[in-house]
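Try it yourself: sequence plus magnesium ion, in.
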Amino acid sequence: AEILERVLEKQQGQSEMGDFEPAPSEPILVPNQSALHARPAAVLANVAKKYQSGIRVQKGDTQVNAKSTVAIMKLNIKLNDKVNLIAQGPDAHEAIRDLTPMIREGLGEEGHAPAPAPASVSMTELAAPAPRPRSDDPDLLLGFTASSGLAVGNVFQVRHAEIDVPETTENSPQEENQKLDTAIEKGKIELEALQARLHNESDPAKAAIFAAHQELLEDPDILEMAASAIAKGKSAAFAWQTAINTQADSLARLNNILLAARANDLHDVGRRVLQQLMGAEAKKLDTPPNTILLAEDLTPSDTINLDRSKVLGICTTLGGATSHVAILARSLNIPAVAGMDPRALDVEDGTPVLLDGNKGTLRLYPDTKEVARTHALQEKQRIKQQTALKNAMEPAITADGHRLETVANISSLADAEQALSFGAEGVGLLRSEFLFLGRTAAPTEDEQTETYTAIAKTLGPDRPLVIRTLDVGGDKPLPYLPIPQEENPFLGERGIRVGLDRPEIFRTQIRAILRASTEGKIMVMFPIISTLSEWRAAKAMFEEEREKLDVPALPVGIMVEVPAAAVMAEQFAREADFFSIGTNDLTQYTLAMDRGHPKLAAQVDGLNPSVLHLIAQTVNGAHTHKTWVGVCGGIASDPQAVPLLIGLGVDELSISVPAIPAIKAQIRELKLSECQENAKKALTLDSAAEVRALYADQVEE
Ligand code: PEP
Ligand code: MG
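Structure, out:
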């Protein structure tokens, strides 16, 4: 009854809306790196629902209801797409005014684009659409890495039987509507309880997945479709199942892995309501010990109830590295393989298997030797990790006595604290963007001073803190710093270019850094420096503010992340106090391949010999003038790259926080002389793959 009423209300509302002129927005550039998928779409729909006016999102010639998460997802909105909002009703102008900046700021996803993961992960992650591999060995099945690690156990197949539902009913549509309403309400209560539990377990990321599910239960497009089937005499269960399946199928058909994966979420939440309607028990996976779960796909509801003490690995034939299953498996630290050969679904329960999350394979009937070898390897890795953590506070000195400075990449005060507990000797890169993103006005000088001071105090007087000035640009617009839309944002106003063009923001940040600098060992560096004139202009502004504040001099350096800066390293080294090589951008600009491009990113490997040559050139130029060089790009945390960076002569590695203990431990096992030999050899090789083969035995833990 309520649903029908809602639909009727809506229709009446729409005729009233006709009295108002439609209010369109300006075109809005979408900044989200990975399309408007479930979470940002839900954020938009949720806020849109607060307005009385009808609101539509338009992309190209297609318009959809902005209050429907599913409809927004189906628009398949991608990074840099232009969309318009059209509102019609009494509060249309407020709606446009409020919603436009939200979309422009990324709908809660305005975080800094993640650095590419070390290639052993990212190559597989980004290989999702590649043709499915198949092996000739009937007992070796192939898939893709979703979460690394090894597991030996027995197969347990998870099958979600379609719940049988009657198509028609003797009941009146009112009664069926009532039943559906009650089932949906119960589903929501379950989801609320789940979220509360996850919040209590300090797992907000997982809670957010279920918040998005809750949102799907209020989706007007789904509710309308179900209500109209019920009005035609269908049963509530049939109407609901059809509405969910129709919407899920259309998501699955979109040429977008991320959105297609959301079809799984729709089925999951759909099943939750169906179970309520049919009085079916939500089956908890009752897994025996030593289980390797096999399934076409696991739903978030399945994975949330996994018994971690019994499930040792997960293997699905669908899904990819971006699916919730992969994300959850990684957060639970369970090895997982996705996109597995579908023959895996025919394997009988109880079959002994070896799941290799590093290689993305499933071995059936592994022989005792293989099993023993895996167990030994697991034990060795466990001890290695434990030892690395135990020795994390020791310095990183190679076996032949060469010391590397091992510092951390951070973007918050909490990161700084964690980095110290993992043995960081300081901070080699503070990505200051975190202070600027996700807000409507720039942080004030005082606010910034306070944050930098707090981080400096955490590190203490002797540990370096390298603060990078704001690195935003056309690809990451800030609402209070409008940059006109650009054809090529990565080649446009980005990094230091923004700082030089908007001196007020740059000078405010510099003043805050200078004021905090008396509290610790602070250094400053500028991002995306391409030319000496950019460097000199930025440095001059820095010195002007320093003199005004009458603060002692501090080291000022540059990020080397544009090939021009690497090639001109000798000239830069005459003037800059230090270099930090940003291999993420350096690789993208050297290879002319967007670091976030879904098709190219697998090739954007910092171990490409071309990038290694530029690193070598940077180090040589720097050392001519006794300027020290760090590396803060993703490869500084990659065990296959670390020996080569050392061999090329870098002085400091700035590492992602969780990888610090393992990288420090690895360095203690290396010999500088061997690293130098291999680095020399790497420069003569043809490809990143050949370079990686030099340290093939070094895999990520
Ligand atoms: C880099 O480009 O390597 C780097 C460390 O900077 P970011 O990843 O923040 O662009
Ligand atoms: Mg960079």
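One thing you can check immediately is this: The chain has 26 helices and 22 strands.
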